[in-house]
Amino acid sequence: GLMKTVLEDHAWKSLTLAMEGEETDKDLDIGTWVEGLEEDDLEALVDVCGRWQTTARNCDLAHSVMNEVFKRIPASRLYRMEGIASFLDSFVAYGAKHLRRLEAHTSRAFLCDGILASVGSTNVLPELSERRMIDIITDDPREPSTKRQRGGSGAEKVAAS
């Protein structure tokens, strides 16, 4: 809705000015913007961030914005805000979900690193790399039955064996 548009416009304006190297008389820092929000706007921002954190696509933006809110807005002001308790409840629930998702991505990255290191360290020919990765992933101890060599046709290789 409106708050997402405001944040996107703010981000694009900041990036455009930074890329063009133009000076501005107004500070475009998101933290300063958050500090200047009225109570109603701040409550709307917390509500939007609460909805954003429910999806993997938007949770990083929601957490970044709320990080600025928690750093810049005094606790006494946050306690008086309507909706902060429900935001914190959902933050804890979805935070655990996002942490599990992040851990799964991390373990997959380690698997990919291991596969690439294994393929690179066995001097597998480029033509066999994909097959070797499949063997490693599926824990298939078999090696490919025929190893291709550089140059020559497939008929020559079959005749040689």
UniProtKB/TrEMBL annotation:
Coiled coil: none annotated. The gene is TBL3_1. Residues 139-161 are annotated as: Disordered. The lineage of its organism: Eukaryota, Sar, Alveolata, Perkinsozoa, Perkinsea. This is Transducin (Beta)-like 3. It comes from the Eukaryota. One of its GO terms (biological process) is rRNA processing. Residues 14-116 form the U3 small nucleolar RNA-associated protein 13 C-terminal domain. It holds the Pfam family Utp13. GO terms for cellular component: small-subunit processome.
